[in-house]
Amino acid sequence: MPVITLTTDFGLKDGFVGTLKGVIWSIYPLAQIADISHEISPQNVLEGAFALWRAYPFFPSGTIHVAVVDPGVGTSRRPLAARLGGHTFVGPDNGLFTPMFEDAEKDCRPIEIVHLTNRKYFLPDVSRTFHGRDIFAPVAAHLANGVPLADLGPAISDPLRLSMPKSEKTADGWRLHITVIDIFGNCTTDLPAAALTERERVTFRLGGQEVRGLVDSYGHKKPGELIALVDSENYVEIAIVNGSAAKVLGARVGDVVEVVTT
Fold it and tell me: What is the pTM of this model?
């Protein structure tokens, strides 16, 4: 049976996440539900896109990913579902699935996208402010229960795309962007570690501070020191040993990190 994942900016205080799960289980009691994150910064579509992008490849083929970071709820923005190879994504058409579309195109995977219009697969009463409950959760449950994607609405080929920041080569190094800030305040960038051939001869600049070279892990420097290292998914990360780099540097997702190689 397929796994259904949830990624939202709902937090855990108000019961919204539990409501989504209740809707899914009411329609498809056998559903297996996994939480990717519910701590996306409110209305931060880019942050939600990166969080889902980093996690989805680790789920099995057939997984259905519900993502709700939806500042345009109740407006003319479309609800959609997209099957990209072996994974299906359900949520608002606001650019949230941009990196997944890019992955599928790069890997030449089959792409099917539908505009969710068939109210048969929604809850009976659709509010203007909680499409996660009324549209996206029930659609995911019906998909998990075997409803064909084509039954949910007409095919579309023009989903909204975000302008995704990407690392860029410069005359003296790289121009990076922060893609993920984790609970510890570690700042992951969009630079694959493989791009740096001389790890000792590199300087990172962010928030008016500099970090020289890459260390192997957090324990190789003293508490409070600003460091750069390679994270568990082989991207360059800026961190503070036993502290929050994001807090000290005032960093946010999308911020630029300059890299100088010598």
Answer: 0.90
